[in-house]
């Protein structure tokens, strides 16, 4: 999640009549000996990649009706682990505790839609695997301009960057120009924010681009994008500072990009817009 250590989320049920799609055509990646050989010995010997995750945040990581952790990030990490000759071992944690747990050695890697930022790079290294920005959604036939939403009601999940940074700045620009402020409607969960738009309680919603794209996909035509994706930044997997695991993950991801498995996984979850061509380490610049 961009900027703050807060994480927005979307539960697996909502009032639009369509829960998240949990069907997956996850690519069945095979171990690549040359890449697996680069994994740090202690992880190699354990046979497991211990992954810290915070849920729900559909479509990236959330639970299906049976309680299994699923999503774009999950399918991709499973394929990464297979390429490295490992099995992903997911451990749930508070979002704000994942990076400290990586620093302390409890987790090998984090997987929770982390935006790679200069500030976080002081604590961990990031292997960037996706590009996400912000994207608004609206009801069809009720157009709204994200850059001129003065006097409108906009739904967000509380404590996300959209609530703490984006909308207050846009609202201030409105009032500075003598126009009415944006009414920011805060909800505990992303599903509630999405439903507020569908039900007409809000004019629009703002969330991370894959979250909004997924909400639109699941709404059965009740939502559409308002404007384009903006303020894009990389999502990255955090690992311990200086750990050789970063290079192993980078090589495994490049392999999945080259084989087309990465595209298969992204397409399955409707997040192709954020695909990257070349993974970097600590590529975040803001």
From TrEMBL:
Principal location class: other
CDD domains, per the entry: PBP2_MidA_like (cd01004)
Keywords, comma-separated and alphabetical: Signal
Location relative to the cell: Cell envelope
Biased composition (Low complexity): 16-29
Domain Solute-binding protein family 3/N-terminal, first and last residues per copy: 48-273
Region Disordered, annotated ranges: 1-30
Family: Belongs to the bacterial solute-binding protein 3 family.
Pfam family, one: SBP_bac_3
Calcium as UniProt keyword: no
GO cellular component, one term: cell envelope
InterPro entries assigned to the protein according to its UniProt record, in alphabetical order: SBP_3_CS, Solute-binding_3/MltF_N
Record-given protein name: ABC transporter substrate-binding protein
PANTHER family on file: ARGININE-BINDING EXTRACELLULAR PROTEIN ARTP, MEMBRANE-BOUND LYTIC MUREIN TRANSGLYCOSYLASE F
